């Protein structure tokens, strides 16, 4: 899938007439800037959230320092201590599951809010709730066990953002309500198929859906097929495809 390197939203009129944005998405006042794969910078209400920041500090140099950092799990594409050490995080609150907190140096303890599945914390006018993320398929359950990691629902000014983390189409995802913007993963063997992701999205009906975390091993997930399934299942759901792999040709 070809992408446009631009800071302005562009509409690609494909056979499905999907809205494809390739640098920044502005949805329900959530400004989403992909960094790569699972890492993103999200701005809302004058605050900056880093989601699963990994990689070189140079990837974040054009963004404001974070007020909130949300980390979903222990794996290297979600948590990398060397990245946190290299960023300006001294004023940030860091929201993590216990498994991540256990790996962080003691120097970060004053900044950490440990959040379990179903628990909530309010910071800077944002209410962050941990949502389960785990595998359902027997052959994949070794990747993500229930209770270790968090997806997140983030609410601010009556708008709700869902970040799936690494998960399959679990009942807790399907039961979500009133989601304005959802970032949903889809990659094998670690998370789920595009069919499972689409089926779950069609059940919880976010206003806007954004596929992310779709590079698998060895194949990249077919996000165009995902888009087609959403369009066919519920054309009222707005689909936004960002460039989550700016250094790759997909």
TrEMBL record:
It holds the Pfam family Lactamase_B_3. It comes from the Bacteria. The keyword Hydrolase applies. PANTHER family: UPF0173 METAL-DEPENDENT HYDROLASE MJ1163, UPF0173 METAL-DEPENDENT HYDROLASE MJ1163-RELATED. This is MBL fold metallo-hydrolase. Keywords: Hydrolase. Gene3D superfamilies: Ribonuclease Z/Hydroxyacylglutathione hydrolase-like (3.60.15.10). GO terms for molecular function: hydrolase activity.
């Amino acid at each position: 899938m070809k992408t446009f390197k631009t800071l302005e939203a562009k509409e690609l009129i494909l056979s499905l007439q999907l809205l494809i944005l390739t640098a920044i998405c502005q949805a329900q006042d959530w400004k989403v800037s992909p960094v790569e794969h699972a890492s993103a910078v999200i701005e809302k209400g004058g605050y900056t959230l880093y989601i699963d920041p990994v990689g070189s500090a140079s990837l974040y140099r054009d963004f404001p320092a974070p007020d909130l950092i949300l980390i979903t799990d222990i794996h290297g594409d979600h948590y990398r201590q060397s990245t946190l050490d290299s960023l300006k995080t001294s004023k940030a609150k860091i929201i993590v599951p216990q498994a991540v907190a256990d790996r962080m140096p003691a120097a970060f303890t004053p900044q950490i809010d440990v959040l379990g599945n179903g628990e909530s914390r309010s910071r800077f006018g944002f209410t962050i709730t941990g949502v389960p993320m785990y595998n359902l398929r027997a052959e994949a359950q070794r990747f993500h066990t229930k209770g270790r990691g968090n997806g997140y629902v983030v609410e601010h000014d009556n708008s709700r953002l869902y970040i799936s983390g690494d998960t399959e189409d679990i009942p807790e995802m399907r039961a979500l309500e009133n989601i304005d913007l959802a970032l949903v993963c889809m990659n094998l063997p670690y998370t789920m198929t595009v069919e499972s992701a689409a089926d779950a999205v069609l059940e919880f009906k976010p206003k806007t859906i954004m596929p992310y975390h779709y590079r698998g091993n060895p194949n990249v997930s077919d996000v165009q097929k995902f888009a087609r399934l959403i369009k066919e299942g519920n054309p009222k759901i707005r689909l936004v495809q960002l460039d989550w792999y700016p250094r790759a040709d997909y």
